[in-house]
TrEMBL record:
It comes from Paenibacillus phyllosphaerae. Residues 180-346 form the Radical SAM core domain. GO terms for molecular function: 4 iron, 4 sulfur cluster binding; lyase activity; metal ion binding. This is Pyruvate-formate lyase-activating enzyme. The keyword Transmembrane does not apply.
Length: 415
């Protein structure tokens, strides 16, 4: 398998004499054949700035590729779980990589391959299945229909500027659509994609919403989207803070909507730290709940999320309450090779899943600069199993839990 690299102009090459390697945490590792799959449709190849790729030269030495080159990674679409990150060294250790989920990529058998495993059906979230012209037409239609709705104006920027698939769905009236509500957050996530401190070194790839929507604005979007049995409308997007901080708006909007229609599903993507707020939202008729977490260990969770006035115990209580009330619960599990597959992380997460009774684990590749993340969190305490074996352990230990990549609706009852 040939090492892949890019030149200063961003042109991609494979080196016929150098063997590609991967990385797990801070360890350079050999890539196994059973870890590699063809580059999925909808994936994006990117250069890693201020880096050089590490591979094995023709003499069998592991070293950086010489010359004015940079390492290359693949950004995978939803539905695929990365097993290794690219192997590289930084040429400037003061620089941090943009907040993306880089996956190891190689060239073999005449094509690009990535270290990844399919964890869900990728078709629904394949960017190639989102017609940008149709989105533009949808934006124009709904902005004309609701000219005073600031949420539609905000989401139009997300759909057209960022090409966000969830906001695009809002204008296409299909699948899972977005309804952001909050400009504030009760956590200070290290890798937040919508808001970073000026001195963080991370450029946030998205702009957070900066206004408080009215109940009527929220209701208009919900009613417009919830028109089919399989439709999902979701609070909690990458362009907002924690939605439950606006629980009053959410609860009132949900009650109005459910008094008018029982169509579709209402979902919230949340950190679930505000347990009282989450109970009120559940009691208002919530159908689906996805809780973001990076670990079931307090030290790791706290280092990344920097929670304000809540703990991981609050998160667990919220999940347990929702599950007991019949909500289809899941976690948005932010995963990273060499960390998530640590022995202590696996054991803690299995216990967390069993205690909360959640139904689905959404494996999501963490968007982060690896060096910054590894310096932030606790060091490994036990064995590191590898991502592929970790997925197998979850499947064996949690046979009734779905391992996926994005929000699912509950399975139809057996009759």
């Amino acid at each position: 398998m040939n090492l892949v690299y890019a030149d200063e102009q961003g042109n991609l090459y494979d080196h016929p004499d150098w063997t590609a390697l991967g990385r797990s945490g801070d360890m350079v590792v050999e890539l196994m054949e059973d870890e590699l799959i063809p580059l999925p449709e909808g994936a994006t190849m990117v250069g890693l700035p201020f880096t050089r790729p590490i591979g094995i030269d023709p003499e069998g030495n592991m070293r950086p590729l010489p010359g004015n080159v940079q390492a290359v990674g693949a950004l995978l679409p939803q539905g695929f779980t990365r097993l290794c990150i690219p192997s590289y060294m930084k040429t400037d250790k003061t620089q941090v990589l943009p907040l993306f989920g880089y996956s190891a990529v190689v060239w073999k058998d005449g094509g690009f391959y990535v270290a990844a495993q399919q964890s869900d059906d990728p078709e629904r979230w394949n960017p190639d299945n989102c017609d940008r012209q149709e989105v533009k037409v949808g934006v124009e239609r709904l902005l004309a229909k609701y000219p005073e709705n600031r949420l539609y104006k905000h989401l139009s920027h997300c759909a057209l500027g960022y090409e966000c698939l969830t906001s695009s769905n809002t204008f296409l009236n299909r699948w899972e659509g977005a309804v952001p509500v909050s400009y504030s957050c009760n956590a200070g996530c290290f890798g937040c994609i919508s808001e970073q401190p000026d001195d963080s070194g991370f450029p946030a790839p998205q702009t957070r919403m900066n206004f408080k929507p009215t109940v009527d604005e929220v209701v208009e979007i919900m009613m417009e989207h919830l028109k089919t049995p399989e439709s999902i409308i979701s609070f909690g997007q990458g362009c907002e803070g924690e939605p439950s901080t606006q629980a009053k708006i959410i609860v009132e909007a949900m009650r109005i909507v459910r008094s008018r229609t029982d169509m579709g599903y209402i979902n919230i993507n949340t950190n679930a730290g505000l347990t009282d707020h989450m109970r009120a939202i559940v009691d208002a008729g919530l159908n689906l709940m996805r809780v973001s977490t990076i670990s079931a260990l307090d030290a790791h969770y706290n280092a990344y999320y920097k929670p304000r006035a809540y703990t991981l115990a609050n998160v667990e209580k919220s999940l347990r309450y929702a599950t007991d009330k019949g909500v289809y619960t899941s976690i948005n599990y932010l995963i990273f090779p060499g960390v998530t597959d640590r022995e202590e992380e696996i054991e803690a997460m299995i216990g967390f899943v069993k205690r909360t009774g959640l139904k689905l684990i959404q494996m999501r590749n963490l968007n982060i600069d690896p060096e910054s993340y590894l310096a932030l969190i606790p060091k490994a305490q036990g064995e590191i199993y590898g991502m592929k074996q970790m997925l197998e352990i979850f499947a064996d230990e949690l046979p009734d839990v779905v391992i996926g990549s994005y929000t699912h609706v509950p399975p139809a009852p057996v009759r």
